[in-house]
Amino acid sequence: MRQQAFAQNGAVAVQAQERARDILLKAWTGGKTSHAYLFRGPTGVGKRDMALAFAALLNCQNRRSSESCGQCPSCKKLASANHPDFIEIIPDGKLIKIDQIRELKKVLSYPPLEAKTRIIFIADIHEVMARAEVANSLLKTLEEPPADTIFILTVDEAAEILPTISSRCQVVPFYALPVEIIKRQLMKRGVDAATAHTMALISEGSLGRAEALAAEDLLGLRRQIVEELSRLDIKQPECVTIVFDLAASCAKLAHLADLLDLMELWIRDLMLLSATGPESVVLNRDLMYLYADSRKHWNMEELSDKLRLIAQAKKELLSNCNKTAVCEVLFFALLGPV
């Protein structure tokens, strides 16, 4: 598949997913394209970009061998997210609603508007199919889709999914991206080499997550939190004000859960170093100047307790809670050298 038709970060992610690309290409060249695929793997590693690349291959008007041209009207519309036959079902709130599936069924009763093959893309199927009514309705559609339609669903690698859904799809595996690929992409966006390397390590192979870290400067905010909580004492007059200000800043984040993940990784580093692990195992390289003092203050049991507190905060954030209050409680509990 020629990737010039897609955004630069998408092209990189697609090229790195050789196994997934080979499965799709082999199915297409052999005339055995499935009516439904389940892209399984970590978030932010190119699953949606692969769906777009596959749609381009199927519908390119000037295709040469197994490559889409990237220049025909179909390829350009896919590249700009304006193709009427690449239909992405986006949750209404946190869930897909039954009315959305009913509307989809109406659309499927007609042939594609322009393309030879219509693509229905539904991301994170493990999260959006919580309602039995919606799941059952989609299952019926997956059982007997139109001949000119392909479903592409995505699921996180660790998520559970109904066997009735996975059994109706061909599973395509996706994997974490190499650190160097993520680092290069971040540097192209103006991130300095040292920060890009830290982000690439912390992102755990997810380009999407690394870009989120960069967009909201989550590393900078994490550094500020660690520094403040390490030096503050609850008896200090300014302590309460500083903690409240930090909590208010964090509550505004679109990726607050990612910030708490970073805090967990910081504790992980401390635990590894406390167990006399080599410094090469450290992920938070930009915080090395804090490790020497921090690891003197807490033992393994205390560090484990910090992890429990962060995990509890992440759990609370999944409900309809006051994010500011959750952060305040957590930060006061973490006071001291973290």
Number of alpha- plus pi-helical segments:
17
- Shape descriptor: elongated
Strand content: 5-15%
The side-by-side strand order for the widest beta sheet comes to 2-3-4-1-5
**Tally of individual domains:** 3
What's the order of the H and E elements? HHEHHEHEHHEHEHHHHHHHHH
Q: Which fold name fills CATH's third level, the topology of the largest domain?
A: Rossmann fold
Q: Kindly report the average pLDDT value.
A: 86
Rg, Å, rounded: 23 Å
pLDDT < 50 stretches: 1-10
**How can the largest sheet be summarized?**
5 strands, parallel
Helix coverage percent of residues?
A: 40-55%
Topology, number of strands? 5
The first-level CATH class name of the largest domain: Alpha Beta
How far the N terminus sits from the C terminus, by CA atoms, comes to 48 Å
Report on the structure:
- Helix 3 packs antiparallel against helix 4, helix 14 packs antiparallel against helix 16 and helix 16 runs antiparallel to helix 17.
- The chain is α/β, with parallel strands linked by helices.
- It is 54% helix and 7% strand.
- It has a five-stranded parallel β-sheet with strand order 2-3-4-1-5.
- Strand 2, helix 5 and strand 3 form a beta-alpha-beta unit.
- It folds into three domains: 171 residues, Rossmann fold (3-Layer(aba) Sandwich); 38 residues; 118 residues, Up-down Bundle (Zinc Finger, Delta Prime, domain 3), CATH 1.20.272.
- It is elongated.
